[in-house]
Structure formats: C-alpha cells, structure tokens
Fold these 4 entries.
Entry 1:
Amino acid sequence: MNNTSTLKIWSGLLYLYLAWGSTYLALHYLVETVPPLMASGFRNLSAGVIMMIWAKITEPQVKLSSKAWITSLIIGTLLLGVGNGGVTIALAWVPTGYAALIVAAVPIWLVLLQWLWLRTIPSPLVMIGVLIGLAGVGLLLDFDSFSLEGDSAQFTLGIIALLTATFCWSLGMIVSQRAQLPYSAAYLSAMQMLGGGTVTLLGSLISGEFPRLNTDGFNLSTLYSYLYLLIFGSLLGFSVFSWLSQRTSPTLLATYNYVNPLVALLLGYVFVNEPLSLKVIIAAGIIILAVVLISIGQRLKKRVELAQQE
C-alpha cells in the first residue's frame, strides 16, 4: 500500500472505531421503546433503500446480477440479520459496555475461520496481537463492575445471542472478502443492507414483535437514536466497512472490535453511569498495542508474500 491508501484505510478504521463504538449507547436507548429485531431491521432496510437510490443516481449504468443479489443476501443475513440483530437483541438484557466486550471476540473467530476454512496460518506477530488484544479486553471484563439487569435466564440468552452474532459476523466478513463482487461500496452496502434488513424484519414478524410495538412510548430519544444509527451506524458506517473489506485483511479490519469496547465504556460512563477506572485506562494502552501489532504483522506478511512472488 502507498502512503495515500494507507491514510485512507486508517481513516476508515478510525471512523469505525468511533462511530460503531458509539452505536451501543444509541441501541441502548432505542430498544427501550422499539423491539430489538424490528429496530435492527427497519434501520438497515431504510439505510439500504437510501443507499440504493444514491447508487442508482451516481452509477446509473451499473447492472446488478442475480448472483450478486444472492451473495449479498447471504452476506447481509450473516452481518446484519444475525450479527447486528443478535447484538441488538442482547442489548435488551446485557449492559452496553459488557456487550461491546463480548463482541471483541470477532478477531479470534476470524483467525480460527481463516485457519480452519481457508488454511491461512496467521503470522506469529498477528497471533500475539490477537492474544494481547483479548488480554486487554479480559482486563476490562469484571462481572462485579456491571449492573446486570434482568433474570439469569435473560442474561444467558443475551450472551448466547452475542456469541452467535460475533461468529456470524466473522463468517460474513470472510464470505464478503472472498466474494470480491465487482461493484462499488455503495451498491455492495445497499444490497447487503436490503437483504439483511428484510431477513431481520421477517424474524421480527415471526417472533411476534409487531403486535408488541407501542408507539405511545416513542419519544425524542427514540427518534435521535434511530437517526444516529441510520446515518452514522448504517449509511456511513457500513459503506466504510464494505469499502475496507475489499482493501484490507479481515484481521486488520476486525481491530475495531478492540477499540469499540473502550468507546462504549466511556460513553456508558458518561451517559449511563457505568464504571470507569484506572484499569480501563491501562486496558486502553494494551488494546492500542494490539492494534499496532496486528497492523505490523499483516504488513510484514504481505511484504514477504510479494517478495516470494518476484
């Protein structure tokens, strides 16, 4: 990568670090008045419609193949239907900071999937970075520091939903990178959000969420949370994610999962009174170190592969 592309990639990663880290708080407020699957489905379907209109205006000559739609439906279902939908469900039962910590398991899922499915052995430096990142997240993980609301059964279901979501999100990232569909980030994002949003709304309908919707409970917090998630989480965030998925490795892309918990915890401290201590600050340094190591490891591995091809 040249300096320009490196700057663009890290600018995109920085956006995901901050924007997606803040979506946990927005989701926390949204699911107070909107059923979780319905909230996730409408958000992504709306973003998909808007993005498709934009793509059609800016690239009217593009023709989408049936294969692209089927592939995007699969990816959208994994990333948004199960991935984003599972996290949204869990936030009805699990605190925002804790959910963000569980989602940080994505890089380890990625390493395992690449190793077992793609036969891609991670470099020692990448493995060290992943382990250090998980150690930093583990340092943050303290059951006594969180106010876990709801009964134990709901909490257990929340954890299962998070683990399922992280696995499917990781699988979706691998499928997305291997698909290499010849379309712009706008078209890819639109197709995936339309597919994922539709599947999630079907799940909401089947699970009986629609009759439970109480519009009388809607307030300004509901509106602001929805708009924030729609614009910064879906429209901008998923477009950046789709662009990055075509231009960098899944392991480097997944480093946002190490930073998102810090953002979620800081915002939780400010707005929801979740605890913040010296341990969090120390963990931040460990997590940043992990991001640097993974980045360097990927870059060195790529250089070695290019040198071997010459």
Entry 2:
Amino acid sequence: MARTPATSTLENAMRRWGFRRVAGCDEVGRGCLAGPVVVAAVVLDPRRRVPGLCDSKMITAARRARLYDVITRRALAWAVSSAPPEEIDALNVHQASLEAMRRAVLALAPLPDLVLVDAFRIPGLLIAQRAVVHGDRRCSAIAAASIVAKVTRDREMLAHHAGDPRYGYDRHKGYATSDHLAALARYGYSVLHRRSFRPPSLFDTIE
C-alpha cells in the first residue's frame, strides 16, 4: 500500500464549526497474541505543523520514532492508556480497546471539545466525537495518535523481550508470526499472553 500523508482537512473544518481543541484517538495491538492494546489521544497545535504524518503501519520504526519525538514536543496535549491482557480477556478485545480509548481521552488536560476516532465511537464519553473510517490514513490528529500508540507499545514489548527473550517480542511485538507460534508451542503461554486468543493450531499443545 502506498504511503499517503494524512491531512488536517477534517480538523480545520471542525475548527471552522467552532471546535478549538480537536483530539485524534487511535489504538494498536488489537490483533496480537501477547501484550496490551495501547491507545493514544493527541491534540495537535494548528500553529506548529508536524510534517510527514501518516498511518503508523506505513512507515519504518526509525521514522515513527522521529515523528513521536516531534509530536510529543509540538502537540497541545497527548496521553496514552492501555488495556492489559487480563482486561482484554475479561471484557473482549473490542470492549477493552474502547475502554482504553475513553481513559486516554479523559487523561488529556485540558479536555478536548471534539474527538476524532479511528473507525469507532467511544461509548460513555461525554464529549463530542466522530468516527472516521480509515482515520489514521486521512486525518493528521488520528495519524499522530497512531504513531504515539505504536511507538509506546513497541517500546513496551522490547522491554518485555529483555526480561523474557524466549518469545521473540523484539521481532514481532506479540503478533501471531510463525516464530511466535513456534515459541508458544514450545514454551506455552506466559503472563503476557491473552488467554482468550487461542490460535486453532495450538489448541492441542497449550494448556
């Protein structure tokens, strides 16, 4: 997929409607076998542009790290929240992700007056919001949130790898790659793994 820069078109339109603090919100890690879902909420400063924003999946880790530094320096506000494996197992990954989104938005200070969310609406959030399909590709604030969330989660998974290198989190960050599945078949689930995520190929090999 070609890398397409996100734009501020939607945020600017919302500001013309009177919304001044427009937050973008996105999550990473929904499809992983291990580790948390991490959510970021970001309010960009329209006076301090961050060039090169786009979907975090479309750029290299080195570029994400550089953009993370710029975003967190220039944003009016940003916050991160996560749903750990035990919360994912208790609620299901979708509900846990929405709850982490709500926590991230409410951690912004001051609160935004509008939230643009990638794909979903956040239940129980008493702030104006709009779901934006493919928002991380289209909307600068959501793209910025996707980058902050991705870098935060990747760094957490690297720290977990340093503590337990058996599963290879430095390579796959908890996604269901072939080497991760092989490690699961050999070592079983760790405390970092989501018990509700059971690949069919492992049903008979993991207690």
Entry 3:
Amino acid sequence: MNAHEIDYRLIGEEMQAVEIELDPQETAIAEPGSFMMMEEGIEMQTIFGDGSRENESFMGKVWNAGKRALTGEGLFMTAFSNNGLGKKKVYFASPYPGKIIPLDLSKVGHRIICQKDAFLCAAKGVSVSLEFRKKIGVGLFGGEGFIMQKLEGDGMAFLHAGGTIIEKHLAAGENLRVDTGCLVGFEPSVHYDIQFVGGLKNSIFGGEGFFFATLRGPGKVYIQSLPFSRLADRVIASAPKMGGKSKGEGSILGTLGDLLDGDN
C-alpha cells in the first residue's frame, strides 16, 4: 500500500466535518481553506502539488501542480503530519451545506473521476490531477467543461458535494441520465457522454438546460441534489437589489408580496 492508512469519522448531518486520526508519521493532505482544527503534535506544511511523488524531479512536480491548476485549484496543498507520539486527530470542514463522501480508492478501481471542486482531503499518497474529456460535445456542454479532477491511488479520499448524495450502482449496459450540474463523480469503468434534451418546448421553457449527462455502466455514480451553482443562483435571486430594496419593493403589491412570501 503506497498511501498512508488513515482512520476517519464523519461528524454532523447538513454541514459535515471529517475527523481524521493519524498514527505517528502519518500525513493527510487537503485543499487550502478546508482545515478546521488539529490536536497538539500535528504539524502543518504547505507543499507543492499533492505530495504523492516524493522522489519526483522538480520539473515533474511543476508539471503535476500545473495540471492541478488547470482544474481551477491552486498550485499548493496543505499537509498535516503527526510528528508526535500516539494517535492525533485533525479535522476538515465542508465549504457549504452538503455531504462528505468517503472513498477507499483501492475498492473503486484505484481511480475516481469527479467535478473540479469536489476534492476535500485525502491520505498522503493519493494523486490529485486532471482528467481531460476528449469528446468536444462533453467538453462544451457537459457542465464541467473539458477538464475534470482525477483521484488515483490506494488510500482514502474525501469528496464534498451539495445537498443529499445518492450513490447509484449501474449494471453493465445500464443507462442513467443526470442534470449536468448534479453529477459529482463516477468510477472509470462508467462511460460518460452528453445527450440533447430534445423538443423545442423542453429545451427553451423546460428550465432544465439543453443537455443531460448520460452515464452507462458498469460502475458507481455519485449524484448531488443541490449543486453549489444552483444554490448560488437562488441566493443571488433573493438578495436585495441596488439601493437596499428587495425585488418586491417599489411595486404596487411590494409590501403585500413580501408578507405573502414570508419576508416580513
């Protein structure tokens, strides 16, 4: 086993955190900004890339860090190492309401493909890089563009997604159509493509976009009920407009509308 073998515990329901227990000399890596707290004896260090290839040349590390940057993430990650005596714990928190998905990569084909901002943390030794979607249609209309994240290795990795998470097990040849924003990740054995919704009314007035993500088994697929983009759109739509007025203020039924909506 190449990755550090860590123990974990999920805490909470809607705003989850993950508690990772490190034995002496064990390390966890995380995206900057996900750290919550740690016990005495754990040291934090900023590293170049994901630290999965310690004997790699400097240019190799630059190349792999650069590939991570193409997914919209930074060149650096944070490593948390237990340099003390006995077991120590470090905690990482969800960035917004949703669920944390624990994945033992050794049990999912040593690789998982996921949306660009899904990765939260992992055992040291897990590689975090990009997955280039070769089909033009998938790249242009698949919701995640040409580039997705790829996690590889044999250790524990943790994804985060919005709302409730549904894990689907697709049989060989079984098809599933998913809103492109609701797709969190899938095993490499799953075939991923996009499909036009079809029908002028469905496309223009359906409110669900022009394309589905289509997934064909065998393999596992992870679906989120509340993509962050959908949550952000609702927050922006409900936010006060310029001058501090809500969308109902200034209209004839503004005050009444606010009362009926429960704003006052």
Entry 4:
Amino acid sequence: MLGALMDRVTPWVGRLIAINAVVLLLQQTLFPSPVLQDLVTFDPALALSRPWTFLTYIFVHGGLLHLLGNSIALFVFGPSVEERLGSRTFILYYLGCGVGAALVSLLFWFVAPGFIYPFIGASGAVLGVAFAFAKFNPDAELFIFPLPMPIKARTLIMIIAAFDVVGALLANDGVAHVAHLGGLLCAWFYFTVVGSGSPYEPPHIAPRRPRVPVSAPAARSDGMERRAERQPERTAVPERDLVAEEQAEMDRLLDKISAKGIGALTQHERQFLEAVAERRRQGN
C-alpha cells in the first residue's frame, strides 16, 4: 500500500511535501522563536520592505493540521498536473501561484487594509494546482469529506471560490481567503494566457502497399534464349516503416521512465505517449 502511494508521487510533489514537513519540524524544534516566524510571514504592511516574504510564507505553516490539509490536497491534485505540465513548468507554476496570491493580497490591502492580515501557508499555491487539475480533468469525480456523494473537479473549484469570496467579505475567521482567491486568479490567468496546450497529433501512418513480385523475362517462342537488354541500374530507396519507428520511440520512452521516472519526460514526449495510447485504445 505504501509502495503504491510512493509510486504515485511525482518528483516535485514529493519534494514540496517533504520541504513543508521539514520546515514545520524546524519551526517547532530548533527555531520556535516567534521573531523568526515573523520574518518569513507575509505581512502586506511590511511586504515591500521584506520582499523575500512573497516566497518564504509559502513554505511555513501554522501547525500540523494546516500542513496536513495542504499536503493531502497537493498529493491528490499535484501528480496529475506535474505529469501534464512537466516537472520544471510545474514548480514554476506552483511558485507563481503562491507569489501571485501574495501580490493579489497586497493589492487588495491597498484598497481595504482592514480585510488583510499577515498570513502563512501554501494554500494559494495548492489551490492553483487544484485549478489546473480541474482544467485538465473537469469531469473527474472526487469524494470530499463529509459529502456523501462524489463531486466533479470543476464544481469543487467553483464551490471553493464562492466560499472564499463570502469569507473574504463577511468572515473574520483568520483564514487568508483573499490569498486563496489570489492563487485561483493567478491559475486562471496562466491558462488564459498560456492555454492548456494543444494535444499532440502523431504523423499519419499510411497503409503499407503490398510488394508486387517481378517475374522473370519470358523465353522466345523459337527456343532461342532472349538476350536481356541492359537497363540502367536503379538504386532501391528503403521504405520507412513508421509503425516500427513509433514502437522504437515507445520503447525508448518506457526505458527512460524506468530509469529516471516519469518526471524526466519532456512535455513533447508525454504528449507522444498520450497520443499513441489513445489511438491504440480506439483501435481495440
């Protein structure tokens, strides 16, 4: 069971979960001073004088439950998104949503300072990942406690956004609702500008034409051997076997996954695998 869960974790999802856990452990053991936590907390009133907090707050959590909530959400939504975007794009997207959540909070603070308080946690970045998951898998059904029935991913994102809008306007519960909305807004902006990517279209493989055997020259009817006329020699051009080339590329990519993990694949290579798998499913 544990092995299956570990196999599901992609490179950056595993690293982020581990980094967040180590930071919380250090917070509660070697560096429990509130002064140190204050230095890495995002405070809109001090953000411009502490620019590092636009990034550091993402890796700091207020306790074990806070960490578990974000880690579980990252574990559920992250691997699918990292496989689709690629590891390098995924980590940049994750950090971008986190920094963007802080920027949105800062802009909102300029308009309404009383609604924004200092905050920590990866929720803005994680909600950006959840948005990407819903973008790629809108009809995926998820079981969310305590709901008794599954809910589609896109519906879940709309409910979360509505909840945070209400929370930002009416609630004073200590939750960074504006930062949550900022993470979702940055995710929406990313997919609006960059798009979700066009599916890979493999080259059309034409059916192979049967080879027609060449018959030997017929003998003359008078019994005399016919002298063949010398013809200029033709250099045979080998026919490309596209099916074999595709299978060879599949074998290469599978070997790469076995040696380095799926995170080592480029986006083009992942699109190639998805396209071949889909075409073979349709052909069955």
